[in-house]
Amino acid sequence: MRRVNLSRRQFMTGTALLSGLAVSGCMTAAPQGPTFAPAEPVIPSPYLMMYGPLPDEQFPVPAVDLTQVPEQYLRRQVDYPTTERVGTVVVDTRNFYLYLVQENGKAMRYGVGLGRQGFEWSGRARIAWKRPWPRWTPPDEMIARQPELEQYSVRNGGMDPGLENPLGARALYIFEGNVDTLYRLHGTNEVWSIGKAVSSGCVRLLNQDVIDLYGRVTNGAAIVVV
Q1: Which portions of the chain are predicted below pLDDT 70?
Q2: Beta pairing, strands 203-206 & 222-225
Q3: Of 50, 118, 123, 128, which sits with the fewest C-beta atoms within 10 Å of its C-beta?
């Protein structure tokens, strides 16, 4: 790169210009000299592969725009000492992480989006079953809040599967005993929501992540939401 040497006079002139901008507050000043675009974030290539497109799915899944997801929420294996059995799913609501407990003190960690205040659920339950590309039927309580969702009620057969379906590419259904809690682990194409509390109680993962989790979790696996 070519080095640029500034004279003392040029340096003092530039300093005076910056001081003027600081005093002007919210005023917009004409650019003084060359401007530079911010550097693009550097995304490690393994993540580009991990979150690339999935064209062979029933509904082809596009690549994730990783500039919208903080890197700490991307899937990775981590150290995770715990007394929970291997195969248990643990949702850490404080830090927006989901852990799948593995052998030798390890876990696969995924970033998640969670329910807004007033819609949270916590406790110990089990994953009763799993579905690829599920239909979505909002519960009656949600329809009461949002009457426009009546078209997707059980009576009307629910919403067809697809990328616009709120359950995304996979859903894992949470039961307490034999009772459906109505909460799910599911996919989402709303990439920006990972690491935030935005949904009505369910735990959402990037579609690429929920597909990965779906392949690792067995029916009947324990789930702990803390």
Answers
A1: 1-41, 117-119
A2: unpaired
A3: 118
